[in-house]
Structures are given as structure tokens and as C-alpha cells.
């Protein structure tokens, strides 16, 4: 990567980390600290934890499309301002209802699509996967960091302190976007980065993609559901909130090692089996957590099982969506996927809040285990995405040869699995089998190399 690409990747990753920290840091502490609000109820706790997912799901695609009209940076800054306002509302809240409102406002700062589009704009085609990978790693890192920092910050500053910190962090990201993130140097093909409303409806009708979308919704529903109850369980085991990070740290580290083992086995042609195993781990952990008298050691083992399955699916489901999406429709497929992901977080908070409000606490875990069993049935016909599939977007020059001739020429090459031509962009989107396809030959035939 050149200096522009590296600076862009690191600065956009920083924006993402600080924003996601604000969404996630309250998750491991809110269920405990919410007890101090006069209008406390399990339902409001669930909505406060997962409420951000509702507006994220609703605005993820529109904000991405808006960045095509207004520009990437203005939309990112707008999202950061909305996020900061929501954080300030939650920080000043004297009732749990206003915390819920603040969380919903936080979610309105849905800038993921615009950030990814800008990352594509500032990177060359052959370096774009590296830039996206850096940002993707940052997203995962932010979740782990939030679980460790949330309890520590809550002990010193309380819930208001966490929301205040996230508001300041969001505002500090604005000069970072304005002065550090590079301006667009070369515009990436929009089909690779941004969703298009005309595509989303058709992609939702694709059974394989729909199964993956429902899968990520269930995955994040389980995550939100767990954090509505888990922190209080740990406090009941005589672990004060400020020390919860000591429990989370070894669990997360061990789960990363276990996930790496699953991924190694997946690369040996066992991808579908590893997906089944991960869902079984989630179901087992949820079922075991329904055991209210479980000792602390057993509870931590259950958490390890959960995060092992969660980490594997969180890393692999997006790759499967990318593999299955038609050529030139990756942006739309990932936009729909992200919307399902955030809606799942909201649904988890709502469902767990309702179950904890009107029934015994263990019923939320039993419900989650049942959802996992239904999930196994949902994916039984899901094929494993081929690890050999790759995607390319070739910018054409109609002055060299007519675009339709280019399409006909490349479509006859070995290894082509799917091809889409967008004439108004002069871009040819390819999904190919890397074992058969020769990119250099394709570029030569299209006159893209001398």
C-alpha cells in the first residue's frame, strides 16, 4: 500500500473503533447500572442495550446512498454528529427511558456504508482488500476492547461517564475525517461498495443470501440477549462490576485460539461442518446458562463456548455473503446483511427484555437455545462458499474497443462464474474461479495493459 492508502486505512479504522466503542462499551455494564434509575424495568434494559440496532438497520442503506449524492465525508461527519448527540442525551438522562432514546439516536449515525465507500475510493483495485481488511480487524478489535474498558470506565465515571466519553470521541473524529483521512483519489466501482435499492429486493429473494442474513440477525440477537442477563449473574457471584474485565479477558483470548482452530479445519474443506459446530456451541452455551445455580467456573466455560462460536460465525458469514453475491452486487448484498445484523441486535434486546419482564430469567436463555435449533434447520441446504472464488472490477475504456465487445470477449474466458456489465460506469464486474481464471490475460484482451 502507498502512503495515501495506509493513512486512509488507519484513520478510517480509528474512526470506526471509536464509534463502535461507544456502541459496545455500555453492553457489559448497563444491566447492572440501570438498577439505579427510577423507572427501571427489564424491558427498558433490553431496549437500552439493543435500541441502537433499530436505527442502524433502518438507516444503513439510506446513509450509504446519501454519500453518493452529498459526498462521503459530509455524510460521515453528519453521522458522527448524530452519534455524539445521542451520547449526550444518554449521558444527561435521569431516567432509563431517556437512555433508550439516546441509544436510538446513537444508532442514527449509521456511517458504515459511507466509510467503506470512502475506503474504496482512496485505494487502488489491487490494494482495496488490504484496506478493507484493516478496517474489518478494527471492528472486531473494538468489540473486545469495549468488553474490557466498559467495566473499568463505569466504575470510575458511571454510565454517564461512558456516554460522555463516547460523545467526545465522536466529536474528535470529525477533524480526523476532515484533515487526516485522504480525499477520494480514485473512485471505486460503486457496485463493490455501496448498496443500490433496485438490487436489494432481488437479493432478498435469493434463498442462500436470505439464510445468511437471517443467520447474522440470530447471531447478534444472541449476543444482545446474553448481555441483558450476564453482568447481573457475575455480580451475584460476588464479582464487582469493575473487575468483570478480569473474567472477560481470559475467556476472549481462549475463544480466539479456539476460533483459529475452527478456521484451520474450515480451510481443509469442512466449512459447513464448522458452521454447524459453531451454532451447536452457541446453543449449548445458552442452554447451560439457563442453569441458574451454575458455579462461576462453569459460567465462564459457557461464555467461552459462546464466544468461540460467535467469533467464528462473525468472521465467516460476511465472507460467505461476498462469495454468493452476484458480480457487481456485493455492495447491495453487504448492505442488506448489515441491516439484518443490526436489526438482530435490536430484536435481542427487545425479546430478552420482554422475557425477563414477564417470566423467569432462564426463559430468555431457553428461548435462545430454541432459536439455535431452528437455525440449524434453516442452513441445512446452505452450500459452503468456495474458497477459490474471487472478484474483480475492471474499468473499461470504450475508446479502445466497444464495451459490448469487451463483455463478449471476457465472458468466454476460462474460470468465469458470473459477469455483470455496468455501461454507465464503464465497469465490468467479474466473479471467477481463481484456479482457472487468468487476470493478466483478461486485462491484456481488454487493452488495460501495454
UniProtKB/TrEMBL annotation:
It comes from Bowmanella denitrificans. It is found in: Cell membrane. It is a multi-pass membrane protein. InterPro entries: MFS (IPR011701), MFS_dom (IPR020846), MFS_trans_sf (IPR036259), MFS_Transporters (IPR050171), Sugar_transporter_CS (IPR005829). Its main location: membrane. Residues 8-387 form the Major facilitator superfamily (MFS) profile domain. This is MFS transporter. The keyword Membrane applies. The chain crosses the membrane at residues 12-37, 43-63, 75-91, 97-119, 131-153, 159-181, 212-230, 245-262, 274-291, 297-313, 334-356, 362-382. Keywords: Cell membrane, Membrane, Transmembrane, Transmembrane helix, Transport.
Amino acid at each position: 500500500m502507498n502512503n495515501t492508502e495506509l493513512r486512509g486505512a488507519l484513520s478510517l479504522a480509528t474512526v470506526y473503533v471509536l464509534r463502535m466503542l461507544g456502541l459496545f462499551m455500555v453492553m457489559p455494564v448497563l444491566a447492572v447500572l440501570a438498577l439505579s434509575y427510577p423507572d427501571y424495568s427489564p424491558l427498558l434494559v433490553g431496549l437500552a442495550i439493543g435500541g441502537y440496532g433499530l436505527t442502524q438497520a433502518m438507516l444503513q442503506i439510506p446513509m450509504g446512498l446519501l454519500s453518493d449524492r452529498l459526498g462521503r465525508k459530509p455524510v460521515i461527519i453528519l453521522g458522527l454528529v448524530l452519534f455524539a448527540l445521542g451520547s449526550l442525551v444518554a449521558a444527561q438522562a435521569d431516567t432509563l427511558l431517556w437512555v433508550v432514546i439516546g441509544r436510538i439516536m446513537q444508532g442514527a449515525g449509521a456511517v458504515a456504508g459511507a466509510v467503506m465507500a470512502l475506503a474504496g475510493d482512496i485505494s487502488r483495485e489491487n490494494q482495496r482488500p488490504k484496506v478493507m481488511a484493516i478496517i474489518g480487524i478494527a471492528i472486531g478489535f473494538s468489540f473486545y476492547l469495549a468488553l474490557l474498558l466498559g467495566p473499568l470506565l463505569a466504575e470510575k465515571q458511571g454510565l454517564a461517564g461512558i456516554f460522555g466519553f463516547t460523545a467526545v470521541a465522536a466529536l474528535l473524529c470529525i477533524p480526523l475525517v476532515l484533515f487526516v483521512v485522504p480525499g477520494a483519489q480514485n473512485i471505486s466501482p460503486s457496485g463493490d461498495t455501496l448498496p443500490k435499492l433496485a438490487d436489494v429486493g432481488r437479493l432478498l429473494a435469493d434463498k442462500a443470501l436470505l439464510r445468511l442474513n437471517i443467520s447474522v440477525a440470530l447471531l447478534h440477537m444472541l449476543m444482545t440477549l446474553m448481555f441483558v442477563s450476564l453482568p447481573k449473574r457475575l455480580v451475584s457471584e460476588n464479582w464487582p462490576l469493575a473487575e468483570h474485565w478480569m473474567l472477560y479477558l481470559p475467556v476472549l483470548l481462549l475463544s480466539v485460539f479456539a476460533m483459529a482452530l475452527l478456521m484451520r479445519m474450515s480451510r481443509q474443506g469442512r466449512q459447513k461442518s464448522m458452521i454447524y459446530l459453531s451454532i451447536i456451541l452457541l446453543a449449548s452455551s445458552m442452554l447451560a446458562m439457563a442453569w441458574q445455580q451454575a458455579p462461576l467456573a462453569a459460567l465462564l466455560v459457557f461464555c467461552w463456548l459462546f464466544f468461540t462460536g460467535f467469533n467464528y460465525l462473525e468472521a465467516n458469514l460476511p465472507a460467505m455473503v461476498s462469495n454468493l453475491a452476484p458480480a457487481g452486487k456485493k455492495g447491495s448484498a453487504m448492505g442488506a446483511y448489515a441491516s439484518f445484523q443490526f436489526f438482530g441486535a435490536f430484536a435481542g434486546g427487545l425479546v430478552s427484555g420482554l422475557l425477563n419482564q414477564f417470566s423467569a430469567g432462564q426463559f430468555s436463555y431457553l428461548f435462545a437455545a430454541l432459536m439455535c435449533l431452528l437455525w440449524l434447520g434453516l442452513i441445512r441446504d446452505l452450500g459452503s462458499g468456495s474458497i477459490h472464488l474471487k472478484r474483480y472490477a475492471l474499468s473499461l475504456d470504450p475508446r479502445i474497443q466497444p464495451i459490448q465487445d469487451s463483455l463478449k470477449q471476457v465472458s468466454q474466458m476460462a474460470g468465469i462464474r458470473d459477469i455483470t456489465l455496468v455501461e454507465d460506469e464503464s465497469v465490468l464486474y467479474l466473479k471467477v474461479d481463481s484456479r482457472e481464471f487468468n487476470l493478466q490475460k483478461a486485462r491484456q484482451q481488454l487493452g488495460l495493459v501495454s
